[in-house]
Amino acid sequence: MVDTREKVAYFQAITGVEDSDLCTEILAAHGWDLELAIASFTGSDSSSPPGPPNLPTTTTGTHHNDAIGTSRSQSAAAQSESISLVAAAPNLAWKLIMLPISIISGSLGLVSGAVNLGFWAAGGVLSFALGVLGVGSSRVGGGGGGNNGGAENPVSGVAAEARAFVEEFEREFGGRTVRPHFVQEGFMDALQRSARVFKLMFVYLHSPDHPDTQAFCEGTLCNEVVANFVNENFVAWGGSIRSSEGFKMSNSLKASRFPFCAVVMPATNQRIALLCQIEGPRSPEDMLPALQRVIEESAPVLVSARLEAEERRNNLRLREEQDAAYRAALEADQARERRELEERERLEREALEAARRQKEEEEARERAAREEAEREAALARRREEKALSLGPEPEKGPDITRVLIRFPAGERKERRFLNTATVQSLYDFVDSQDCLNCESYALVSNFPRTVYGSEKLSLTLKEAGLHPQASLFVELNP
């Protein structure tokens, strides 16, 4: 459900009224019925009181269409108010025409929004179209042939019809120096093209069998001034009424005389605005002023639409640039945060690693100190035990052997032993001293060199040849 702001915007887009307050008053006077307000604003009902002349919607022939869907039962007060407001509106007033469902089914809608102004043809025309064109079957387009059992692509079908018309037109009138450049695509695609380039759409419905067609195409459509004006100011689309889409558009535009030309522009979803229709044979002198007048009257709407589209593009580009700058700044912030996080994590890992190494070193030092203390304690106990095993030093006498022992660090220790003591007692004496921290050593004499190793530990000092005195030194084992 569109809200009031959207209804005002649709009303402005259709009527060309720029004053939003005025549009609001018109819609409010019609109970916010968008269809009723537009029909009242653009209608030309003969029962209405006389209003300002209807300049913009130009009908050059004898056939003139009222705006489709105009409400006949609107209140007199609302009708008089809407007519009084027309004088303040722009000269450009549109007739809104509902396009056939089969024409718009192959293309997207031109402008969002909905103004329910009725279907494109009466029941009799629709029945005829169903019978002749096969619209009721699974095919769209075609000329009433049998069902081939498959659905035809509507876009490719109408494009093929457009190409066929252009090729036929060029074969008939290609010898002319200048001719309208009809687009080789379907009506809806051509209408979308005109909206994209902000031009009106020139529609020519070709009736090959009409007696005035040949002269009109040669003398008016292919007139150099008219053709150049059409090519410069319009998107030109043509269709033969023998083709499916040309026949449907002739019914939609209610063409009663041929040759038939019209100027349209996209209005709302499934609808076009009929700005001008020219029916019957016309000379270039009649054709050109009508086209010039509709261009002049629609110029403000086209310029406004172009400016609005440019503003939308600029706003979109600005938003994209802002979004890109925001994304770049966000990515830079995220990258900086990642670097900071990685740096913090690295520092934390290094701190944890340093703490771990420090703890391990402290534990290793404590363990080494503990082991050293245990070793020192063990050595102290061993020295004490060795000293106790030696007993007291004997006094001098003939059975006493005096032994001098030199240590690696230069210390000298001397002691008296009984000659019956074993060589082991000499090792016990060395172990009891605080001069050697090595447990693997040997006692050696120089002249002659004799090593008193483990095989001589049980010999007495006398048996070992150390009585009555001996000089030994401590030799560390490798």
Task: Describe the structure using short key phrases.
5-stranded mixed β-sheet, single chain, 49% helix, 478 residues, 11 strands, alpha/beta, 13 helices, 6-stranded mixed β-sheet
Instruction: State the helical fraction.
Output: 40-55%
Q: Extract low-pLDDT stretches.
A: 44-93, 106-155
Q: Report the portion of residues in β strands.
A: 5-15%
Number of strands: 11
Specify Rg, calculated over alpha carbons: 58 Å
What is the H/E order? HHHEHEHHHHEHHEHEEHEEHEEE
Average pLDDT, to the nearest integer?
77
- Specify the overall morphology: rod-shaped
Largest sheet: 6 strands, mixed
**Helical segment tally?**
13
> What distance separates the N and C termini?
104 Å
By secondary-structure content and strand pairing, the structural class works out as alpha/beta
How would you characterize this protein structure?
The protein has 478 residues and is α/β, with parallel strands linked by helices. It has 13 helices and eleven strands. It has helices at residues 4-15, 20-29, 34-42, 76-86, 101-104, 123-133, 154-173, 187-197, 213-221, 224-233, 244-252, 284-390, 423-432, and strands at 58-59, 95-98, 200-206, 234-240, 260-266, 271-279, 400-406, 412-418, 441-445, 450-452, 469-476. The strands form two sheets. Strands 1, 2, 3, 4, 5 and 6 form a six-stranded mixed sheet that branches. α1 (4-15) crosses α2 (20-29). The longest helix is centred in the last third of the chain and has 107 residues, at 284-390. The protein is rod-shaped and about 170 Å long.
